Amino acid sequence: MPRVTIRDVARHARVSTATVSRALSGARPVSPEVVAQVRRSAEELGYSGNGIASALRRSRTDTVGMVVPSIANPFFTALVESAEHALQEAGQQLFLCSSRSDPGLEAQRLRTLVARQVDGIVISPVHGTESTAAVAWAAGRLPLVQVDRYVTGVDSHWVGVDDDAALGLIADHLAGQGVRTAAFVSSRLTNSSTELRLSGLRRHSARLGIAVDERQILLGEYSIAWGREAAALLVEHRPLPDAVICADDLIALGVLEGCAAAGIDVPGDVLVTGFDDIPFSALSAPPLTTVHQPQEQIAAEAVRLLQRALGPGEGPHERIALAPSLVVRASTGRGD
């Protein structure tokens, strides 16, 4: 079937092509009767127009770029999905890029998005310092919102979870379960989330009298494989702590696997907690106690801040730390 053109709509509505353009774009005043007539003709003929061209005439592309460290990590997958839904509500499309936890690739992705003339960028930076130059460069050219993680020294909005409060929830819960010693398994201290979670652990464990042996602070990467390896190290260098606090759920799932392989009972011999509340955390054996991040709210706030940055007269940049919640499951001795 041949593509319906603006000329076909004009002929059907018995008006000029210029009138059709004005009626559909709202660029200039057209009587309500003519607008209704043109729209009726467009609908009957199946004319959709050229949204990209219209957006370009408004100096907008109605597209937003998003850069995340990994789309394989279920936390970021869910965050991207929530952002896409929020952008759709705002009439915008998402260009998704994975930086694969590589600052060099992240910088390349940012350059590509700027070249594509996206309206703005949402990014969770890979590295606390090595990402700074590229994020600052992009923020100097387009509205930019940092989510979950952030780099300092860049003037931009940020929205994420309150990591310190999250570690406080974990520590309070474990203390209530009689925990007196704890290990911490995380990625290397290369991003704001990891650093804040470790500092939160130290602060709240000291507050509650939970001893954290520096030799049992194990730093690797956000992966199940590292969690298994960390569990093997803890088993090898006993005595075991009362609890293993993990910086994300992937690590915690690996710790559960490692404990099972070594004959260590969870929660009988050691308690285990995660962070993020990915869907798999409720399906592990045993189900995992974890921090729930309000991903939909994080994404909605990020899109709201981006829309504000795209509008006239933007005010000062905001830093929004959303409240976490703790989902208690059997890995810490209590069921759902």
From TrEMBL:
Keywords on record: DNA-binding, Transcription, Transcription regulation
GO MF annotations in UniProt: DNA-binding transcription factor activity; transcription cis-regulatory region binding
Highest rank taxon of the organism: Bacteria
InterPro entries, per database record: HTH_LacI, LacI/GalR-like_sensor, Lambda_DNA-bd_dom_sf, Peripla_BP_I
Coiled-coil ranges per UniProt: none
Boundaries of every HTH lacI-type domain copy: 4-58
A Pfam family that the UniProt record links to this protein: LacI
Descriptive protein name: Transcriptional regulator, LacI family
Protein species of origin: Blastococcus saxobsidens (strain DD2)
